[in-house]
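Tutorial, part two.
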Amino acid sequence: MKTPLSLMLLAGSCAVLLGGCMSGPDYEQPEMQMPDAWHQAVQEELDGETPSLQTWWTVFGDETLNDLITRASTNNLNLKTAAARIERAAALRGVSASQYWPDIAGVGGANAFQTAEALTPPGSEQEGMQYQLGLSMAWELDLWGRVRRSVESADASLQASIENYRDILVLLYADIARNYINVRTLQERIDFAETNLQAQAETMELTKNRFDSGLVPALDVSQAELNRSRTASRIPPLRQQLVAAINRLSVLTGDMPYALLKELETVRPIPAAAAGEQISRGLPADLLRQRPDIRRAERELAAQNALIGAKQAELYPSLSLPGTLMLQAVDGGLLSGDAVVYGFGPQLRLNIFNGRRIRSQVDAERAGTQAALHTYEQTVLVALEEVENYMAAYAHERDRIQSLETAAASAQKSVELVTELYKSGLTDFQNVLNMEQALLVQQDALSSSRGAVSLDLVGIYKSLGGGWSPPPEESEK
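Running the prediction step on this input gives:
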């Protein structure tokens, strides 16, 4: 008969011999065929090499924007939620790793008993108290790598949660910049509308004076009033959009809506990159290292791949080492040496029939891994698409601004000239009306375009994954 020590040595030897076995496929990072260069030809300022993507918003040189981003980095609730999820993933990783070790529990109890007199051996107690105190242990040896694959999956999930935090950073900074640019764009559009409203009020007064003098018909006065009222009607929707943008900024910085209304009420220029500012766009292959959503999708693929092995290990025999060490006594005598009771011995278990349950679960994990691979590939393609689209939009909008600036200047000059002609009686009021309407349209379009250029620049940085930097050890690879 083997002693407990010999049984332990036998089980340990089996664990050593089989411990190197790992079920399931080893993970290999997928290789994506990336283009050698960006297809979209962009203006010269997109060819910079040195500016950091980590603090890209500083290219606008706007201290208010910098301050809003600093506040959001500390107070944004989505960031806090993502940080809590990292802590949760780390704790779950600890749960998986705990399976490497035996479960040891202290047990104890006291039971009152009474046996039938006919069944009680002579000299034995027919009734009394039974006490027990000791330890129980259960330990499943990781022969086929089930635990190791589970830990591997948990590690990858933890890394994916870190990438999710970084992705929220990228989106948050871009969202703050977009809303701040919208605030300044709307303020400029409102300013243009109010300036035109004042000019049109003066024109209406001019038509009334000329009508009172019998120089023009009442139609001119009505048209002037129509033009002024139409311009006035454009302002309330712009103000509503302005309030909404400020409220969004307030919430993004972790504050109550309206909290930033007073702070942002002073009109300032639309943020724009300084002339000659270069933008580091890098190569398409850099997205695999820089975009957190791509990195997260890759880590999720690794986590899912490890689950195949964790589930596949259940197809093979499992070896566990249960054991108990107890002190038992009846009516006292618990510390007596004769009261020691123990039990120990390896147990082997093999799933023989379960209606293909385990194999179906393995197939499900394989299918899940294939789906995760396609998700990763799709994430890469969408990232490439975003960069190309924003670069194209930025380049073409800059070209559009030049035409709009010329058009707005020409409209302003035309209003001045046609007004003088109208005062001299050399043209009818319809030409004045047309030019005033054209001026408002062109100035509003110019403001919108200025904002769009800055928004497209934000889009470029966001699509490149700007807002954080990979660890130095990754940058050196």
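The beta strands are 103-114, 127-138, 140-141, 318-320, 323-330, 340-344, 347-349. In part three we will examine how such features are distributed along the chain.
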